Amino acid sequence: SDVQNGSGTDALIPLLYLATMRNDGEEAQLRIERHRQQREGRGFQLLEAPTPDRLEDVPACRVILLDCLSNFTANTLFSDVCGNVRDDGCRNIGDGRNGGKTVLEVTEKILRLRDRCKHLVIVADAVFSDGMVYEWETERYIRILGDICAILARQAEYIIEVVFGLPVFLRKAERRKNGETDISETDTPDADTPDANGGGVSR
Asked: In angstroms, rounded to a whole number, what is the distance separating the alpha carbons of residues 97 and 99?
């Protein structure tokens, strides 16, 4: 990690990149290196945060970019902080006890980041509509990720879907001179469905 915990407005970090991918193999190392090259020269400082407990170390920032929610959720759901596979899973997808715990843990920790920055941007993969049927663990993960995206989407001023590299605004907030915010939506998915993909949260 490149940053240390700090406080006070004079200690604000301009751009903080929260990296959620675990460096646990050759493929992961290649992706991490590619991401580092893409960020090079853009002014980001790095903090590795693969699990919710690492978000406690986030310092005061102007902008936080969390990349990505999909990895972060998977790390939380499938393993504990020591990297061991959780033994509290339920093979009945309809039993949401443990899934609800993951949803609560992830959303609470991420939403608390808003108190540490001026703008919070969250990247999420759209894994909800490929038409495939997976094993119960993956199906459960997809539904939990969808629930998390829906909760974050309800809090977002902007929701942006990136299509072939082009931004499509599903929700866009515009600030008036009096400080109030107008939010306009275009074909925004129902935030109560697991298909609602929260592409960004900003405040």
From this structure: 5
